[in-house]
Each structure stands twice: as C-alpha cells, then as structure tokens.
Amino acid sequence: MSKAKQPIIIIGMHRSGTSMITRFIQEIDYFLGDSLDINHEANYFIRLNEWILRQTNSTWDNPYNFKFLPLTVEEHLKKVCEQHLEQHDRVKYLGLKNYFSYSNIKNIDFNWGWKDPRNSITLPIWKSIFPNAKIIHIYRNPFDVAISLYRREIDYEANYNSNLISKFKEFFLYPNHVGYSFSVRTTKVDEGIKLWTEYMQYIERYKLMYDYFEIKYEDFLDNPVESLKSLSSYLDVDVHESKYIEIAGKVNSDRKYSFLNDQDMLELYKEKYKFDQMVKSYGYGDLA
Questions:
Q1: pTM of the full predicted structure?
Q2: Range 8-140+195-254 has CATH code 1.20.1530
C-alpha cells in the first residue's frame, strides 16, 4: 500500500468567497469529499464538527464557549473522531468507489482534504489527528461577509415560510429538528460582523500554534493567477498555465468591497469599524 497522505484543511469565516478557490483545488485533483453541500463543504466533516461544537454547547454562529474546552475533553473528542474515521459512516466522505479500498480515512494515499468554516474553531482536534496537515485560510472583509450572511438568512426564511413540505417535516416527521433558519443571529448585520471577529480571534490564536497559507479574497479578485500560483506552490503541485487562465476568466471582480455601495453599511463602517484593531490588522481600515 502507498504511504498515507496528510490532508489539506480549509478554514475561514462563512461566506468568505471560498467556493471558486475550492473548485480550483478540486480541479488540480484534490479529493474534498464524495458528498458536498452547495458551498463545496464536506457533509461528513460538517457533521463531525457540529458534534464537536455541541460538546461545549457551541454552534457555528455562537462559538464563544469552545475557547474553554479543557485539554482532557479535547483528548476525548480526538479519540472519538479518530474512531469515526474508520467506522462505516466513512462512506459519506469516501463514497462507494473508495469505501472498500480504505478501511480508515487516515489511510488515504492520494491528495485529499476538506473545507468547512467550522474548522476555524475545531482546528486543534484535527491537527492533533493530522499533525502534518496543510492549512489554507481564506478571508474576506467582514462587511461583505455580514451582508451575505444576512441575505442568506432572509432568503432561507422566505423559502421556508412558503414551503409546506418543509413545515410538514418539521412539525410531524422531525419534531426535535431545528431547521427554521440558518442563524437568527445573522439577521442583524452588526452581529454578523461580530461573528467574523470571533472567528478571526480563534484563527489568530491558532496561528501561534500552526503554520497557515493565507489568501485575502480581495487580493485574489485583483490577481487570481498569482494567487493560485502561490497556492499551487504551497501544495507542491504542478499546474498548467491554462488552468490558471481558465479560473481567472471566471472571476467577477465586481464583488470586491461591494458593501461600499450600501450607504447604511458605509456609515456603519465609518462610525464603528474603520479604526477597529482586527479590521485594521487585515487591511480593511482605510476603505473609505
């Protein structure tokens, strides 16, 4: 059997424009999971990350408690996750094609990894299991992130209110299932910005422990070819020039700092966040 390979772990706040970069990683023959959601996130690892967060009564949109995770409990969570990597539900990540070839996800011998913003919080668990995993951090300005979270929530709630099948499932088939919204917190744009700050605080803390490769989304929009070449170098893979050009042709630079066209957001930025230390440290302090 070939030597097992360590994964890449993609981290970053939700709605940070990671989908195109993730598609590029897939197109250079990285396997990111058989079952992916609409954001190219691995459903298998989403489920495990949600379970990890629940052990401290945390969620993706309220991760505060996770910082108090005791080391003894962290060690237990690591062992449970390692057990899952060799259980039958690994098929949800591997798919049937790979399920019978790999009795343990840790044995994968080709290029692989996964994307899930929750990794930004749970990273110590995964780095203890995969100590040589490469970490890719993609970040975007918090104002466009907060607006995107808000719009997603409003769209979801509008769809739910008009979907009788969803209501039937909630009330009669899955009465204990919480599914009325993605996040009531993010219906408040200011809370979406605070949530971005909380994620960045975790990421800053983990930077003291691990090496990252970082991509600033707005820089990627300005120069996608150079950003992808740097990423390829970090991953130590050879990519034909035509692939960079192909991806660059799909980039829509109009998405860069779109919040500046929203007068309310622009005023909020000037009054409350322009001089915020975290905002400034990531290069977003002089946008207006």
A1: 0.91
A2: no
